[in-house]
Structure formats: structure tokens, C-alpha cells
Amino acid sequence: MKEEEKIFAGKLFDARKKELRDIKHKAHILCQKFNLLDEYDEKRLPIIKEFIGKIGQKYYFQGPIQFNYGCHTFIGENFFANFNTTILDDGKIYIGDNVMFGPNVSLMATSHPLIPKERIAMKYEDGHVSMSEYAKGIYIGDNVWIACNVVVCDGVHIGNNVVIGAGSVVTKDIPDNYLAYGNPCKPIRLITEKDSKLDLL
């Protein structure tokens, strides 16, 4: 079984094997290229499509950005990400339509075993010892706003129409239509028509 297949099968994998390093290297080089270009440069945004798994027709990344694989991330229509988006997409990441990220949002779709000897469990004939990882992936629904300095951890499912407050660390699922925040992040209350700001128009 290839290392990438191990990821998607939910098994321990070795992120330092050449097979995976080669996939990541493509995304890393293209992220560097993106980050060096001016935000008005017409060649900048199309770079995303060179490494992303899938993305809608309308999207914007302010940059700088850093993807680990890129090809394991699937994004819907009308996506916006502010400064310093970091996506460790070892596991697959699915992001719905009309999603907004504030500055410094990090999606961490990977983890290490807690027991030390399991983190170095994979030993190879060439003497290489892996720092073992496993990944469950992350799912983010439609119409979600993730505010600044949020970390979304591996295995989390965020429902539709959710707002995640600034500085939150999301370790558990968040149901549809909730305002959630905190460390650890918790659903605080339903978002209702009372939250409307149309009077400010």
C-alpha cells in the first residue's frame, strides 16, 4: 500500500517518505510563487488551480498562503481567505460554498499518536525512522465564516451557516446555524434574525 493510500485508509503513514514529499514539494513551490507575486498580478490567483484538488470559479486568497499537499483540498464556489491561510491537508479537506476565512486561519488535518514509541513506530530497511502521523480530514459546510486566529483540528465537521469566533480552537463538531467560540470551541447559541445588521446599510 502506498503512503498516500494509507492516509485515506485511516492508517499511520510516514509523511517523510519521498512519495509524499514529492506531492508536497509541488504545492510548496507553487505557494512560494503565489506569495511572491503582487496581489494585482493576473497570474497570481490561477496558480491555486495548479495544485488544489478542486475549487470553484470564484475565489480569492489574500496571501501569504501555505498548503501542505493542496491536492487533498476541495473548495466550493465564492471562497475568500484573508492573510496567512495555513492548510495542512494530509487528510482530505472539504470546504463548501460561500465560505470566508479571517486572517491567520489554520486547518490542521493531521495528527501524531500520543504514545511516544508509536510516533516512531515505522522503521525501514534503510534505517529510516518515521515520525508517524494519521489523518481523519476536515469538513466545513456552506455559508461559514471562520474569524481570525482560528485553528480547526483534524476530524472536525463544521456545519452549514456557522460562525466560528476569533481565537477559537475547534476540536469537536459544530452543528448547523450556530455561533461557536472558545478554546476549546463550543456552540454558544443559534444565529437568528435578531442578529441582522441590515439596519446599518
Oligomer: single chain
Rg measurement, Å? 18 Å
CATH H-tier superfamily: Hexapeptide repeat proteins
Poorly predicted spans = none
Q: Which percent range fits the helix content?
A: 10-25%
How far apart are the termini?
A: 57 Å
User: What is the string of helix and strand elements?
Assistant: HHEEEEEEEEHEEEEEEEE
- Which word captures the global form? globular
Strand order in the sheet with the most strands: 1-4-7-10-13-15-16
Which band does the percent of strand residues land in?
Answer: 15-25%
Count of domains: 1
At the first level of CATH, the class is Mainly Beta
| Biggest sheet architecture | 7 strands, mixed
Q: What is the residue-mean pLDDT, rounded to a whole number?
A: 95
Tell me the number of helical segments per DSSP (H or I, 4 or more residues long). 3
- Pairing-aware structural class of the strands and helices? alpha/beta
From the 3D structure, determine the CATH topology.
UDP N-Acetylglucosamine Acyltransferase, domain 1
- The number of distinct β-strands equals 16
Domain Maltose/galactoside acetyltransferase: 4-57
EC number: 2.3.1.-
Pfam family, one: Hexapep
InterPro entries: Hexapep (IPR001451), Hexapep_transf_CS (IPR018357), LacA-like (IPR039369), Mac_dom (IPR024688), Trimer_LpxA-like_sf (IPR011004)
Q: Can you lay out the helices and strands and say which pair or pack?
A:
Layout: H1 3-8, H2 18-36, E1 59-61, E2 65-67, E3 73-75, E4 79-81, E5 85-88, E6 93-95, E7 100-101, E8 106-108, H3 116-119, E9 138-140, E10 145-146, E11 151-153, E12 157-158, E13 163-164, E14 169-170, E15 178-182, E16 185-190
Parallel strand pairs: 1-4, 2-5, 3-6, 4-7, 5-8, 6-9, 7-10, 8-11, 9-12, 10-13, 11-14, 13-15
Antiparallel strand pairs: 15-16
